[in-house]
UniProtKB/TrEMBL annotation:
The keyword Lyase applies. InterPro entries: Aldolase_TIM, FBA_I. It is an enzyme of class 4 (lyase). Keywords: Glycolysis, Lyase. The lineage of its organism: Bacteria, Pseudomonadati, Pseudomonadota, Alphaproteobacteria, Hyphomicrobiales. SUPFAM superfamilies: Aldolase. Pathway: Carbohydrate degradation; glycolysis; D-glyceraldehyde 3-phosphate and glycerone phosphate from D-glucose: step 4/4. Belongs to the class I fructose-bisphosphate aldolase family. This is Probable fructose-bisphosphate aldolase class 1. Pfam families: Glycolytic. It catalyses: beta-D-fructose 1,6-bisphosphate = D-glyceraldehyde 3-phosphate + dihydroxyacetone phosphate.
Length: 341
């Protein structure tokens, strides 16, 4: 393992002004997104959509450090025959790959999930590296509800995340470690804080036990935030202050970077939260975005599956990428959104 090179890539993934495009929707998820805009989820439509994003010159060269791909996409070619991976590389961004294989119900733990995909992972990583992937992603899902999460769910998911991360580093691939505490419930921000703290502490404990080099990884956490159905929604400043307090308590400074998931926040909320956190610096790690929905909802709507809308889709994507790029330096203002509208 070349840790200097892993650290160089991890640092580039969280470079100030840039963040990660999470375009690794599995087939079921992308179908849901396409259903919402009335587009059939065929292989060629999925290719055309992602090609549109990766050919957005402004976004990709200035604000996107890396792209997380789904297995289908990493093997796909653009309409003119250029591998999509090459499009990403030529824009200056780093290709990455989602390697988990989704979730399964956790035995004896009703309502809880464990992420799977460790079998044959070493062989798969080798092929992905040859294709150009320099980082990977594995997402664990932790739900908050009555009596959950159990320590069992937190523990098995942390163990799997660390197994995955160690295999990635052995294959010279930077692992994005994503333990997502969902924001779907009616819990308040303090309950989210408390659960996320347990999850992060256990995750870092397992990473240490399994000898993962913290200097060669990126953490992709949720923010400390109110559940979507909570009657009292914490304001932007509180989300920023509690998230930074939580991360400082749980994430060692040896980790080069943290790149948030958006988790169902609106586009602008996700940007405003990241921006507000940067007002609380200096921070011990790079801090940026690795958004899926908060970067793609606008371009999906603008595109709506029509070739004549490609330029509009790219404009919408570039706008969100620029807003989040500014937020990753604490330089975003809501007036910039209004101007664009
Ligand atoms: C883009 O969505 C990713 C893949 O999800 P599925 O495996 O469920 O299809 C997802 O892991 C994503 O990278 C993270 O949840 C962050 O995305 P959001 O939309 O929460 O920013």
């Amino acid at each position: 393992m070349d840790l200097t090179e892993l650290n160089r890539i991890a640092t580039a993934m969280v470079a100030p002004g840039k963040g990660i495009l999470a375009a690794d929707e599995s087939s079921g998820t992308i179908k849901k997104r396409f259903d919402a805009i009335g587009v059939e989820s065929t292989e060629s439509n999925r290719r055309d959509y992602r090609e549109m994003l990766f050919r957005s010159r402004e976004a990709m060269s200035q604000y996107i450090s890396g792209v997380i791909l789904y297995d289908e996409t990493i093997w796909q070619d653009a309409k003119d025959g250029t591998p999509l991976v090459k499009l990403i590389e030529s824009s200056g961004a780093i290709p990455g790959i989602k390697v988990d294989e989704g979730t399964q119900g956790l035995p004896m733990c009703p309502g809880e999930l464990v992420t799977v995909g460790l079998d044959k992972l070493a062989e798969r990583l080798k092929k992905y590296y040859e294709r150009g992937a320099r980082f990977a992603k594995w997402r664990a899902v932790i739900d908050i509800g009555s009596g959950i999460p159990s320590m069992t769910a937190i523990s098995v998911n942390a163990h799997a995340l660390a197994r995955y991360a160690a295999l990635c580093q052995a294959a010279q691939i930077v692992p994005i470690v994503e333990p997502e505490v969902l924001m779907d419930g009616d819990h308040d921000i303090d309950r989210c804080y408390e659960v996320t703290q347990r999850v992060l502490n256990k995750t870092f404990q397992e990473l240490r036990v399994q000898r993962v080099a913290l200097e060669g990884m990126v953490l992709k956490p949720n923010m400390a935030i109110s559940g979507k159905k909570c009657a009292k929604q914490a304001p932007v400043e509180e989300v920023a202050e509690k998230t930074i307090r939580l991360l400082k308590a749980c994430v060692p400074a040896a980790v080069p970077g943290i790149a948030f998931l958006s988790g169902g926040q609106s586009d602008e909320e996700a940007t405003a939260h990241l921006n507000a956190m940067h007002k609380l610096g200096p921070l011990p790690w790079g801090l940026t975005f690795s958004y899926g929905r908060a970067l793609q909802a606008a371009p999906q709507k603008a595109w709506s599956g029509k070739a004549e809308n490609v330029a509009a889709g790219q404009r919408a994507f570039s706008h969100r990428a620029r807003m989040n790029g500014l937020a990753s330096k604490g330089e975003w203002q809501s007036s910039l959104e209004k101007k664009a509208a």
